[in-house]
Amino acid sequence: MALTPEDVLNKNFTATQFRRGYDEQEVDDFLDEVVVELRRLLGENAELRRKLEAAQQGQGVQDRTPSPGSMGVGGPDPDAVRRVDVAAKAEIDRIQRESEQRIAAARANAEQAEKESAARIAKARTDASNAEQQASSARQAAEQARRDAQDAQRAGIAQPAPMAPSPMAPSPMAGAMGAPGMGGGAADAAAVITLAQKLHDEYVSQGKSEHDRLLGEATTQRDKMLGEATAQRDQMLAEATARRERLLGEAQARHDELISSAEGRHRELVSSAKAEHDRLLAEANETHERLITEARQRSTGMLAEAQQKRQAIVEELERTQAHLNARIAELRQFEQDYRGRLRAFIEGQLQSLTTTETLAPQGVGVGRD
Questions:
Q1: 77 exposed, middle or buried (CB, 10 Å; 0-12, 13-18, 19+)?
Q2: Is the pLDDT of residue 72 over 90?
Q3: Confidence of residue 77 (pLDDT cuts 50, 70, 90)
Q4: Residues contacting residue 51 through CB under 8 Å, at least 6 positions apart
Q5: How many CB atoms lie within 10 A of CB 110?
Q6: DSSP labels for 270-287?
Q7: Mean of the pLDDT values across residues 73-100?
Q8: What pLDDT sits at residue 362?
Q9: Beta-carbon count within 10 A of 52 CB
């Protein structure tokens, strides 16, 4: 518990009941508290001086402040310096976080653009693959028609059976394959193969053209979005750097201003604290001497009173011991008298029993007859 001058002035002790003075235990406890508080104040003073020296040596405050001889033990408050540094670092961190967030957003937009381009390219590739599959189906249909024609020619059939139109084949080929009155099988097969190859080439050419067009559009769009994202990122980086430099300048100016005000405030606080410390130390020393004197006086009075009480108690114990000794002597005399009477009574009883046993045989024999 921290002691204040008001606590020392307003301290009240419990008065004793049978003599003048205060309770010794309360006085000793209060003196212990005063000693602890003085030691704490001295320790805090030494710790503040140590921190001041460390701040002056570590942060170069000596170059901007007067010498220790001209300003006493004053100097910049380490707490104020630390608070300014923490505020500046927090602002710089906030700017960096904002810049990183903006850069992350630009990267996310670029990645989204790349994903969209990749999706378009995949769609173009899928369309080209579908076209190739359709061409392959048409080619397979043509091969099947050719094999059917060859089988029909080998079997000697003049008119081949019409083929079912393939869902993947175009309508001209279906008309050529399903028209009645067709000529020889070999010529029909060759025509079908030629038509299928032509359609296949057209589909492949269209698929490649569409694939190249979509791939070019996706690449152009991706490059455009990447350029925009890069420009936006560079712009945000430039803005963040400029803002960081501006805030650093403002923080440095604020830091210097707070250092200056903290130095003045620290000098005032150190001066007032030293004066208050000296005053409290003088009051504590005076109170300590007074309490020590009162305690010694009380100790002397209590010692005399204790000796008187001891003498009275010893006399009372001696009187009690004499009374008890007399009582013990009476009890011992009573015991001797009681033992004599008891012995006489027992001897009388034994004698009467002896007399009774001597006379008993005659009377007992008569009774048995």
A1: buried
A2: no
A3: low
A4: 78
A5: 19
A6: HHHHHHHHHHHHHHHHHH
A7: 69
A8: 53
A9: 20
CA–CA gap between residue 269 and residue 11 (Å, rounded): 27
Placement of tokens 């060859």 in the chain: 150
Query: Regarding predicted confidence, which is higher, 185 or 315?
Result: 315
What is the arithmetic mean of pLDDT over 305-334?
92
Q: In sequence order, what are the residues at sequence separation of 6 or more whose Cβ sits closer than 8 angstroms to the Cβ of residue 83?
A: 258
Query: In whole angstroms, what is the distance from residue 174 CA to residue 199 CA?
Result: 12
Kindly report the number of other CB atoms within 10 A of residue 92's CB atom.
Answer: 14
The pair of three-digit structure tokens given for residue 116, joined into one six-digit string: 């969209």
Mean pLDDT, the chain, rounded, equals 75
- Is the model's pLDDT at 341 over the cut of 90? yes
Q: For residue 182, count other CB atoms closer than 10 A to its CB.
A: 18
Buried b (16+ CB within 10 A) or exposed e, 11-25: eebeeeeeeebbeee
pLDDT value of residue 189: 67
Which residues, 6+ apart, have CB-to-CB distance to 146 below 8 Å?
189, 190, 192, 193
More confident residue, 107 or 319: 319
What are the tokens at 125? 């590739």
Scanning the structure block, which residue is given the tokens 């009681």?
Answer: 338
Q: In the predicted model, is pLDDT for residue 70 greater than 80?
A: no
Q: Which two tokens stand for residue 271?
A: 């001066």
Helical segments of the chain, H only? 5-9, 24-59, 68-71, 78-155, 171-178, 185-368
By C-alpha distance, which of 135, 214, 211 is closest to 173? 135
Tokens of 263: 């130095």
Q: Is the dihedral of CA 189, 195, 198, 202 positive or negative?
A: negative
Structural tokens at position 46: 């030494």
335, amino acid identity: E
Residue 308, burial from CB neighbour count under 10 angstroms (0-12, 13-18, 19+): exposed
Residue 360 has pLDDT above 70, yes or no: no
Alpha-carbon Rg of the chain, whole angstroms? Answer: 62
Rounded CA separation 49/44 (Å) = 9
Is a pLDDT exceeding 60 seen at residue 315? yes
Are 277 and 45 in contact by the 8 Å Cβ rule? The answer is: yes
Higher confidence at residue 248 or residue 42? 42
4 conformational bin, left if phi > 0, alpha if psi -120 to 50, beta if neither: beta
